[in-house]
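User: Can you fold this complex?
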Amino acid sequence: MNSTRQTVIAGNWKMHKLRREAQEFCRHLLANLEEKPAASVILYPSFPLLADVATALDDPRVSVGGQDIHPAASGAHTGDVSGPQLIDAGCSWVLCGHSERRADHCESDELVARKAEAALQHGLTPMICVGETAAQREAGQTFEVLDRQLAAVFSQDFGEFALAYEPVWAIGSGLSATPELAQEVHAFLRQRLSDLVGPEQATWVPILYGGSVKPENAAGLIVQPDIDGFLIGGASLDPDKFLAIIRQAAPAA
Ligand code: PEP
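Assistant: Here's the predicted assembly.
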Protein backbone atom coordinates (compact mmCIF):
# COMPACT_ATOMS: atom_id res chain seq x y z
CA MET A 1 0.00 0.00 0.00
CA ASN A 2 1.14 3.52 -0.78
CA SER A 3 2.46 5.25 2.34
CA THR A 4 1.26 8.63 1.09
CA ARG A 5 -2.42 7.70 1.21
CA GLN A 6 -4.20 10.23 3.38
CA THR A 7 -6.70 9.36 6.11
CA VAL A 8 -9.71 11.69 5.89
CA ILE A 9 -12.48 12.15 8.45
CA ALA A 10 -15.34 14.27 7.14
CA GLY A 11 -18.54 15.47 8.79
CA ASN A 12 -21.65 16.05 6.68
CA TRP A 13 -23.99 18.29 8.67
CA LYS A 14 -26.74 18.10 6.03
CA MET A 15 -29.56 20.57 6.90
CA HIS A 16 -28.65 20.80 10.59
CA LYS A 17 -27.40 23.53 12.95
CA LEU A 18 -27.96 27.25 13.32
CA ARG A 19 -25.11 29.75 13.27
CA ARG A 20 -24.64 29.88 17.05
CA GLU A 21 -24.59 26.07 17.31
CA ALA A 22 -22.06 25.91 14.50
CA GLN A 23 -19.82 28.45 16.25
CA GLU A 24 -19.93 26.47 19.50
CA PHE A 25 -19.11 23.25 17.65
CA CYS A 26 -16.07 24.85 15.98
CA ARG A 27 -14.76 26.25 19.27
CA HIS A 28 -15.12 22.86 20.96
CA LEU A 29 -13.54 21.00 18.03
CA LEU A 30 -10.46 23.22 17.83
CA ALA A 31 -9.98 23.24 21.60
CA ASN A 32 -10.01 19.44 21.79
CA LEU A 33 -8.39 18.35 18.54
CA GLU A 34 -4.84 17.01 18.80
CA GLU A 35 -2.11 19.38 17.69
CA LYS A 36 -1.29 16.96 14.86
CA PRO A 37 -4.34 14.78 14.18
CA ALA A 38 -3.68 11.49 12.34
CA ALA A 39 -6.33 12.44 9.80
CA SER A 40 -7.27 15.35 7.59
CA VAL A 41 -10.53 16.69 8.99
CA ILE A 42 -13.26 18.24 6.82
CA LEU A 43 -16.63 19.74 7.73
CA TYR A 44 -19.49 20.12 5.24
CA PRO A 45 -21.98 22.61 6.75
CA SER A 46 -25.06 23.84 4.87
CA PHE A 47 -24.59 26.88 2.63
CA PRO A 48 -25.77 29.61 5.08
CA LEU A 49 -23.19 28.42 7.65
CA LEU A 50 -20.21 28.13 5.33
CA ALA A 51 -18.59 31.54 5.72
CA ASP A 52 -19.04 31.58 9.52
CA VAL A 53 -17.63 28.06 9.88
CA ALA A 54 -14.70 28.80 7.56
CA THR A 55 -13.87 31.90 9.63
CA ALA A 56 -14.23 30.04 12.93
CA LEU A 57 -12.06 27.18 11.62
CA ASP A 58 -9.24 29.27 10.28
CA ASP A 59 -6.88 26.45 11.23
CA PRO A 60 -4.75 24.12 9.08
CA ARG A 61 -6.10 21.05 10.90
CA VAL A 62 -9.65 21.43 9.53
CA SER A 63 -10.96 22.17 6.03
CA VAL A 64 -14.42 23.25 4.98
CA GLY A 65 -16.50 22.05 2.04
CA GLY A 66 -19.84 22.64 0.37
CA GLN A 67 -22.52 19.95 0.21
CA ASP A 68 -23.22 20.56 -3.47
CA ILE A 69 -22.09 22.59 -6.49
CA HIS A 70 -23.79 23.71 -9.71
CA PRO A 71 -21.88 22.88 -12.90
CA ALA A 72 -22.03 26.52 -14.09
CA ALA A 73 -19.76 29.24 -12.70
CA SER A 74 -22.66 31.73 -12.40
CA GLY A 75 -26.07 32.41 -13.92
CA ALA A 76 -29.81 32.11 -13.52
CA HIS A 77 -30.01 29.02 -11.28
CA THR A 78 -32.22 29.89 -8.32
CA GLY A 79 -31.25 28.07 -5.14
CA ASP A 80 -27.94 26.75 -6.50
CA VAL A 81 -24.37 27.57 -5.53
CA SER A 82 -21.35 27.78 -7.81
CA GLY A 83 -17.72 26.79 -7.44
CA PRO A 84 -16.43 30.39 -7.27
CA GLN A 85 -19.01 31.13 -4.53
CA LEU A 86 -17.83 28.11 -2.53
CA ILE A 87 -14.21 29.21 -2.87
CA ASP A 88 -15.21 32.74 -1.85
CA ALA A 89 -16.90 31.35 1.29
CA GLY A 90 -13.67 29.56 2.31
CA CYS A 91 -14.25 26.06 0.93
CA SER A 92 -11.58 23.76 -0.45
CA TRP A 93 -13.77 20.63 -0.82
CA VAL A 94 -17.23 19.84 -2.18
CA LEU A 95 -19.50 16.79 -2.01
CA CYS A 96 -20.74 15.54 -5.38
CA GLY A 97 -23.50 12.98 -5.80
CA HIS A 98 -24.52 12.38 -2.19
CA SER A 99 -27.35 9.82 -2.28
CA GLU A 100 -29.76 12.31 -0.69
CA ARG A 101 -29.18 14.69 -3.59
CA ARG A 102 -29.41 11.86 -6.12
CA ALA A 103 -32.78 10.90 -4.56
CA ASP A 104 -34.26 14.29 -3.51
CA HIS A 105 -33.12 16.22 -6.60
CA CYS A 106 -33.06 13.42 -9.20
CA GLU A 107 -29.34 13.89 -9.81
CA SER A 108 -28.17 11.57 -12.58
CA ASP A 109 -24.71 10.05 -12.89
CA GLU A 110 -24.06 12.46 -15.76
CA LEU A 111 -24.97 15.50 -13.66
CA VAL A 112 -22.73 14.26 -10.85
CA ALA A 113 -19.91 14.00 -13.40
CA ARG A 114 -20.47 17.61 -14.53
CA LYS A 115 -20.45 18.79 -10.91
CA ALA A 116 -17.18 16.98 -10.23
CA GLU A 117 -15.64 18.53 -13.35
CA ALA A 118 -16.82 21.99 -12.26
CA ALA A 119 -15.30 21.47 -8.82
CA LEU A 120 -11.91 20.64 -10.30
CA GLN A 121 -12.11 23.52 -12.73
CA HIS A 122 -12.66 25.99 -9.86
CA GLY A 123 -9.94 24.56 -7.62
CA LEU A 124 -12.14 22.55 -5.25
CA THR A 125 -11.43 18.91 -4.39
CA PRO A 126 -14.54 16.83 -5.11
CA MET A 127 -15.54 14.07 -2.71
CA ILE A 128 -17.65 11.88 -4.96
CA CYS A 129 -20.26 9.70 -3.29
CA VAL A 130 -21.38 6.34 -4.65
CA GLY A 131 -23.47 3.55 -3.18
CA GLU A 132 -26.23 1.05 -3.83
CA THR A 133 -29.74 0.99 -2.40
CA ALA A 134 -31.08 -1.90 -0.32
CA ALA A 135 -33.14 -3.10 -3.30
CA GLN A 136 -30.10 -3.04 -5.58
CA ARG A 137 -28.05 -5.02 -3.06
CA GLU A 138 -30.81 -7.56 -2.58
CA ALA A 139 -31.08 -7.95 -6.36
CA GLY A 140 -27.34 -8.68 -6.59
CA GLN A 141 -26.67 -5.44 -8.49
CA THR A 142 -24.24 -3.76 -6.08
CA PHE A 143 -21.11 -3.99 -8.24
CA GLU A 144 -22.97 -3.18 -11.45
CA VAL A 145 -24.45 -0.01 -9.88
CA LEU A 146 -21.10 1.11 -8.47
CA ASP A 147 -19.41 0.40 -11.78
CA ARG A 148 -21.94 2.60 -13.60
CA GLN A 149 -21.59 5.43 -11.04
CA LEU A 150 -17.78 5.38 -11.34
CA ALA A 151 -17.65 5.05 -15.13
CA ALA A 152 -19.86 8.16 -15.53
CA VAL A 153 -17.41 10.34 -13.59
CA PHE A 154 -13.85 9.08 -13.95
CA SER A 155 -11.41 8.91 -16.83
CA GLN A 156 -7.65 9.22 -17.31
CA ASP A 157 -6.13 12.54 -16.18
CA PHE A 158 -8.89 13.19 -13.65
CA GLY A 159 -7.69 15.69 -11.03
CA GLU A 160 -7.31 15.16 -7.28
CA PHE A 161 -10.39 13.72 -5.57
CA ALA A 162 -11.66 11.49 -2.78
CA LEU A 163 -14.29 8.78 -3.16
CA ALA A 164 -16.92 7.99 -0.52
CA TYR A 165 -18.66 4.60 -0.54
CA GLU A 166 -22.00 5.15 1.15
CA PRO A 167 -24.43 2.24 0.88
CA VAL A 168 -27.81 3.97 0.90
CA TRP A 169 -29.27 1.36 3.25
CA ALA A 170 -26.62 2.24 5.86
CA ILE A 171 -27.11 6.02 5.84
CA GLY A 172 -28.94 7.28 8.89
CA SER A 173 -30.31 3.80 9.57
CA GLY A 174 -28.00 2.73 12.40
CA LEU A 175 -27.14 -0.30 10.21
CA SER A 176 -23.49 0.17 9.33
CA ALA A 177 -21.89 -2.16 6.79
CA THR A 178 -19.70 -4.75 8.48
CA PRO A 179 -15.96 -4.15 8.13
CA GLU A 180 -15.72 -7.21 5.85
CA LEU A 181 -18.53 -6.07 3.55
CA ALA A 182 -17.16 -2.53 3.36
CA GLN A 183 -13.62 -3.79 2.67
CA GLU A 184 -14.88 -6.05 -0.15
CA VAL A 185 -16.57 -3.07 -1.84
CA HIS A 186 -13.64 -0.69 -1.24
CA ALA A 187 -11.21 -3.16 -2.81
CA PHE A 188 -13.55 -3.42 -5.84
CA LEU A 189 -13.76 0.39 -6.08
CA ARG A 190 -9.98 0.78 -5.96
CA GLN A 191 -9.58 -1.84 -8.68
CA ARG A 192 -12.15 -0.12 -10.92
CA LEU A 193 -10.53 3.27 -10.26
CA SER A 194 -7.25 1.75 -11.32
CA ASP A 195 -8.82 0.91 -14.71
CA LEU A 196 -10.42 4.35 -15.02
CA VAL A 197 -7.89 6.88 -13.68
CA GLY A 198 -4.78 4.71 -13.70
CA PRO A 199 -3.08 2.51 -11.10
CA GLU A 200 -0.93 5.23 -9.56
CA GLN A 201 -3.76 7.58 -8.66
CA ALA A 202 -5.99 4.67 -7.59
CA THR A 203 -3.32 3.57 -5.12
CA TRP A 204 -3.21 6.85 -3.24
CA VAL A 205 -6.77 8.14 -3.59
CA PRO A 206 -8.59 8.12 -0.22
CA ILE A 207 -11.70 5.93 -0.29
CA LEU A 208 -13.95 6.81 2.65
CA TYR A 209 -16.73 4.70 4.09
CA GLY A 210 -20.02 6.36 5.10
CA GLY A 211 -23.16 4.95 6.68
CA SER A 212 -23.96 5.02 10.40
CA VAL A 213 -20.33 5.42 11.49
CA LYS A 214 -20.04 6.13 15.21
CA PRO A 215 -17.34 5.91 17.88
CA GLU A 216 -18.43 2.32 18.64
CA ASN A 217 -17.89 0.90 15.13
CA ALA A 218 -15.15 3.14 13.70
CA ALA A 219 -12.17 1.10 14.95
CA GLY A 220 -13.19 -2.12 13.17
CA LEU A 221 -13.74 -0.28 9.89
CA ILE A 222 -10.61 1.91 9.85
CA VAL A 223 -8.21 -1.03 10.17
CA GLN A 224 -9.43 -2.46 6.84
CA PRO A 225 -6.70 -2.02 4.22
CA ASP A 226 -8.84 -0.13 1.69
CA ILE A 227 -10.84 2.04 4.10
CA ASP A 228 -9.06 5.40 4.37
CA GLY A 229 -11.49 7.33 6.52
CA PHE A 230 -15.13 8.19 6.98
CA LEU A 231 -17.89 10.47 5.76
CA ILE A 232 -20.07 10.88 8.83
CA GLY A 233 -23.59 12.28 9.08
CA GLY A 234 -25.39 11.93 12.41
CA ALA A 235 -22.32 11.39 14.62
CA SER A 236 -20.60 14.47 13.18
CA LEU A 237 -23.22 16.74 14.74
CA ASP A 238 -21.87 16.05 18.22
CA PRO A 239 -18.31 17.37 18.55
CA ASP A 240 -17.36 14.78 21.19
CA LYS A 241 -18.51 11.87 18.99
CA PHE A 242 -16.76 13.42 15.98
CA LEU A 243 -13.55 13.86 18.00
CA ALA A 244 -13.78 10.28 19.30
CA ILE A 245 -13.88 9.01 15.70
CA ILE A 246 -11.00 11.27 14.62
CA ARG A 247 -8.89 9.87 17.47
CA GLN A 248 -9.38 6.33 16.14
CA ALA A 249 -8.07 7.26 12.71
CA ALA A 250 -4.54 6.07 12.19
CA PRO A 251 -2.71 6.80 8.95
CA ALA A 252 -3.78 4.24 6.37
CA ALA A 253 -0.18 3.32 5.45
C1 PEP B 1 -24.12 10.66 5.24
O1 PEP B 1 -25.19 11.19 5.06
O2 PEP B 1 -23.18 10.93 4.48
C2 PEP B 1 -24.00 9.68 6.31
C3 PEP B 1 -23.04 8.82 6.23
O3 PEP B 1 -24.93 9.74 7.32
P1 PEP B 1 -24.94 8.85 8.67
O4 PEP B 1 -23.55 8.84 9.23
O5 PEP B 1 -25.91 9.56 9.57
O6 PEP B 1 -25.38 7.48 8.29
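Residues 30 and 57 are 8 Å apart (CA to CA). The longest helix spans residues 179-197.
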